[in-house]
Amino acid sequence: MNIVKDKRPTINDVARISGVSKRTVSRVINGAANVGEATRKKIEAVIQELNFSPDKQARGLAASRSFLLGLIYDNPDALYIDQVQRGVLDICSAKGYELVVHPCTYKSDDFINNCIKFVKRSNIDGVVILPPVSESRELATSFQENHIKYVRIASLDLDDHANIVVSDDRAALSDLARYIVSLGHQNIAIISGPKSYFSSKERLEGFCDTLKQLGKKVPEERIIEGKNTYESGIDCARQLLIQTPRPQFIFANNDEMAAGVLKVAHELGILVPEQLSIAGFDDNLLASRIIPSLTTIQRPVSAMASLAATKIIAMIEGNEYNVEEQYLVKPHLIIRESTRKIDK
Asked: Where is the HTH lacI-type domain (predicted)?
């Protein structure tokens, strides 16, 4: 092979050594489907041998796109955001895209215009939208009207399956309810997330509906709305743990709030899990490292983010993708030290 020396290899070098046109090399670089397998392998071998890295600006101009993906979110959980970014970046690295993050204020009056301006200003090819922002039908409609490609991550089937990755939170909380009843708990309490969020509603209803089917009911005074923050978990736990009779089990809408419950139990001298069982949702890094380790629902956040990135890139590049088979993900129960069977 005639290797190029003493200079940075170009796409012209790859084309010349491969014996194909520059356009064919460009198709391989951009992942186009209309290249024969033998030709593709030959070009990929030359690219590897030359250690060729395409100029991203030139690549973007040739393909009429920027090779930039956007990530839009309004979420106080830094661990969740980190998991999402890792999942998206795994796919971006493999496909030659860069990630641009954009925090927004979901409840602000101009948040939709803010998101649209971000996409246009940054020349973004497509965006992945996280909850609770992803729950906005108005944002999805505005993106459609402005021809902006997007994929939502959500807890409810809100869109065409090409445009969404759904976490089946309701089914996962049904599993948790069955587990808690099997432990013999009678006095059950809940710290929900903000009730305006679809994800909070899905988890609350999935848990309470299954409890009802099993002959258990959670009184209204034992359901307190939190803000999905550690501090709100503390505040809500203080309200619940002074009630008589005291709850035997508390489910918190996320691990941050569950950690707040653990703190209050420790302050009040309530033993976990001997006198109080606690469970959360997310299975972030905190859940397995606190003492006692937290029973929780593991949502495969990185895998969902990777799936969303794969779908948006397929959409951008016009590639076929089986959206019906891959849009729904079910979180699953992780049992750790913070729950135990009631002593008879």
From this structure: 9-63
The number of distinct structural domains making up the chain is: 3
Token pair, residue 294, equals: 């937290």
In the chain, the amino acid numbered 212 is: K
Give the total residue count for the chain. 344
- In 3-state terms, what secondary structure has residue 228? coil
Greatest distance between any 2 Cα atoms in the chain: 83
Looking at the chain, the whole-number percentage of residues with pLDDT higher than 90 is 69
Query: pTM of the predicted model, to two decimals?
Result: 0.78
Residue 163 lies in a domain: yes
Q: What is d(CA 268, CA 238) in angstroms, rounded to the nearest whole number?
A: 9
Q: How confident is the model at residue 59 (pLDDT cuts 50, 70, 90)?
A: low
- Please choose, from the candidates 276, 308, 316, the residue with its C-alpha nearest in 3D space to the C-alpha of residue 294: 276
Residues 238/255, Cβ–Cβ less than 8 Å:
no
Strand order in the sheet with 126-129: 98-103, 68-73, 126-129, 149-154, 164-167, 328-329
Sign of CA dihedral 11, 15, 20, 25: negative
Query: CA 236 to CA 160: how far, in whole Å?
Result: 37
CB contact at 8 A, 270 and 262: no
195 shares its domain with 292: yes
